[in-house]
Amino acid sequence: MLNIKLNERTFEAEDGATLFGLRDAVRPEADIVILNGAAMSQDVRLSNGDEVCLIQRGVVPSEDELESLIAARHTPGVHEKVKSATVGIAGLGGLGSVIAVALARVGIGKLVLADFDVVEPSNLNRQQYFVDQIGLLKTDALVTNVRRINPYVQLEAHPVRLTPENLFPIFGEIDVMVEAFDRADQKVMLMQNFSAGRPNIPLIAASGLAGLGPEETIGVQKMGKNIFVVGDLETGARPGCGLMAPRVGIAASMQANLALRLIVEGTV
């Protein structure tokens, strides 16, 4: 017998079983067949430990199946590690809101979110909010949006301005810290205080994201044992060089990807 995972549940298949044979026997109406994270169009023989998801287009899955199907396209072994992790995000603007959405989509276990501000019209050019959320606290709006994407993510939201005094009560129990502020003084405050108080927790910051410059200049630089900075470290917002969704989004996705790598690779 083969021990496999079928829609994230343990399943025993006969030796020599094939992918499409399993589909035909268990869920013949499925028209999307995923094997170890990849959508398959040809039949293959199954192996011990394979992960299979069977999905029928247009059909809303049951609640107990939904979480596994959200993670169906992940690399095998990722979901278990990510689901047990907690990431803190300081600032929920163009960086933080995009990071939160990306980590929710990969099934992060818990997000700790902090921002004192409200959604305003100029946020909509790059932040993950909607016109009908103008005037709402960013914490409230983002919690609503994330829950619509993945209801299985635990969310802890703090509508406060972060200071050295409240930083660790809020971000005391996390695996990765992400700095996502717009203002330089806030970035410095968080980086100095967090790295001093929690030197063993990775801190992922960002600097130099404005304008529409070349995307290949946005990179990741490691500064010290556990501090990483994403961006070009040069291009700040100024008259004639504003903040826009594409370049800010590139950096935010790189921050989210780095957090994911640190969690999955076991370095946190």
Automatic annotation (TrEMBL):
Keyword Manganese: no
Chain ranges of the THIF-type NAD/FAD binding fold domain: 79-264
Source superkingdom: Bacteria
UniProt enzyme class: ligase
Record GO biological process: cyclic threonylcarbamoyladenosine biosynthetic process
E.C. number: 6.1.-.-
Molecular-function annotations in GO: tRNA threonylcarbamoyladenosine dehydratase; ubiquitin-like modifier activating enzyme activity
Keywords: Ligase
Domain spans labelled ThiS-like ubiquitin: 2-58
Pfam families in the cross-refs: ThiF, ThiS-like
UniProt cross-references to NCBIfam families, sorted A to Z: PRK08644.1, thiF_fam2
Protein's name according to its UniProt entry: tRNA threonylcarbamoyladenosine dehydratase
Species of the source: Novipirellula herctigrandis
